[in-house]
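FIELD: query
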Amino acid sequence: MTAHPKKVVLAYSGGLDTSIILKWLQEEKGCEVVTFTADLGQGEELEPVRRKAEAHGVKEIFIDDLREEFVADFVFPMFRANALYEGLYLLGTSIARPLISKRQIEIAHQVGADAVCHGATGKGNDQVRFELAYYALDPSIKVIAPWREWELNSRTKLIEYAEKHNIEIATDKRGEAPFSVDANLLHTSSEGKALEDPAQEAPEFVYQRTVSPEAAPDKATYIEVGFERGDACSINGVAMSPATLLTRLNELGGANGIGRLDLLENRFVGMKSRGIYETPGGTILLMAHRGIEQITMDKGAMHLKDELMPKYAELVYNGYWYSPEREMLQAAIDKSQEMVTGSVRLKLYKGNCDIVGRTSPYSLYSQEHVTFEEDDVYDQADAGGFIKINALRLRLLSARDRKAGRNT
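FIELD: result
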C-alpha cells in the first residue's frame, strides 16, 4: 500500500481554487503544505498571497521573482525557433509551466517534501505539462492532482467548501466567473464561460494588455530592436535585460493594439477549446526575429529550421520541454543562430507590426547580385543551364507520359 505523502509543495496563486486546494491538502490528505508562488510578470501584487498562506497556517512560503529566468532561459530559446502552435499561438501559457515545475521540484528537495501539487483541471493541457516536467526532473516524486481526485466538481461545491472553511471568496467569484485568466510576462490567456461560444466575438472587456486597434494612435510608432546570436538585446540602441526588454515591447505593442488572437485550438487531451490571447511584446519579437534571420541566415538552414518549427512548437505545447527530442531540436536551432546579429526597424500601427528595415554586420544580402542595373558578378546566361538541369526530370516524365498516351 502506497504511503500518503507527508509534505507537499503546492503551486499557489492565492486564488479561490488553490486556496481550497491548500485547505483540502491539510484536511483531507493530512499534509504539511509548503506554498510556492512564481512571479512571472503576471502583473499582480504578490504580498497578499503571502498573507493568505499565513492565514491558513503555512509555515514555509516561497514567492520567487523568476521574470529574468523566464525570459532568458525559456521564452528566448523558444523564440529562436519562431515557434507557433497551429500556425498562430505563441505558447505563452505552455512555456511558463516547465519553469514553475522546475522551481517546485527544487523547493521540494530543499524542504524535504515528498510530493508536489498543482491546481490544473482534468480537462486541460496544464495537468500534462506540469506532471511531465515533474517526472522528468524527479522520477520518484509523488504528484497530487486534486481535480482528478476530489468531489468538488462544480463552482457551487467549491463556494460551499470555501464558506465552510472560512476561505476568503472575492465578490466576483460568487456564482459563475465570466472567464478564466492566466497571465505572465509573455501573454494573457482568457477562456471559458463567456468565451465558450466560438461564433460570438469576444467582448472588449476580455482584453487586458492591448487597446483595440481602432482606439490605437493614428500615428505610427517606429522602433529598432537589436539582436545578438538570435536573442533580442536592445530597443532603440538601449541595452536591456531580457525581462526588461519584453516588458517594454509589451508596453509598445499594447499601446498600438498589437498581439490579439482569437484561437480555436486542439488541446493535447483531445478536445478543441477557444482561447483569447494577448501577446503584444511577443508578436513584435517574433516579427523582429524573422526580420534579422532574413538578412543573416542561409536559405537551406532557414528552410530546414522552418520545417522543424511545427514539431518544436508541438513539443512545447504538449509539455515535453524536458524531453531529449526538444533538446535535440534546440541544439540545431541554437547552431543556426550563431550569426543572427544586427538590428531590425519596425513600424507599429493600429494592430499591425511591419518590418521596414534590417541591418547586420553578417549580412548575406548582396546588392551587387540582385540589382536590376548592370553588374559584373552575375552572368544571367548561367540561369539557362541551371533551369535545364532542374527541368530534366520534368521533361523525361512528360515524354514518357506522352508516349504512354496519358494526358498531361
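FIELD: remark
The two ends are 71 Å apart (CA to CA).
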